[in-house]
Amino acid sequence: PEVVFIGRSNVGKSSLINSLTRIRGLARVSSQPGKTQTINFFELTAKLRDPESGEEQGRKDFYLVDLPGYGYAKTGKERRKIWKKFIDEYLLTSPRLQFLCQLIDIRHEPMASDVEMFQWLVEHHVPVLIVATKADKIGKNARQKNVAAIRRALGVKEISILPYSSVKNEGRSDLLDVIREILV
Question: What are the pLDDT digits (tens) for 114-135?
């Protein structure tokens, strides 16, 4: 099974993957937007535990998939078109895709490219979870306000949005719980 991460360039996809796996440097992190230029598959094994007893029920192999960022990237239009084509093709044809995490920077209202991507995912029936990254960079009150702004911008009142901080690992256990549920 595949759990996919997508978002604008520099939203923190690679940092989130490193935080989630606790493997520093697994996904290459850069301050330069557009560093990820291929679809990267990271094969992992999850320990599955009984929710009540906490006893291990077994293990399950799966992939975390890091996609190139959409929107701004220091590359030409032609290359961005090629990226879009192979990303769209992958999202529409992968039989193992379980769900997709769309990362949006919690500090800002979603950009047009974020809203377009979300609408495209919904239109094509790709199961999506919104992960609001960089949550450590704003206060608790601002988080609630900004999560509400993301909901409004996406036009879906009841959507779950998971605030996440790769620096402090906030939201990590919640995201791992969602992944475990999908794998069981």
Answer: 999 999 999 999 999 999 999 9
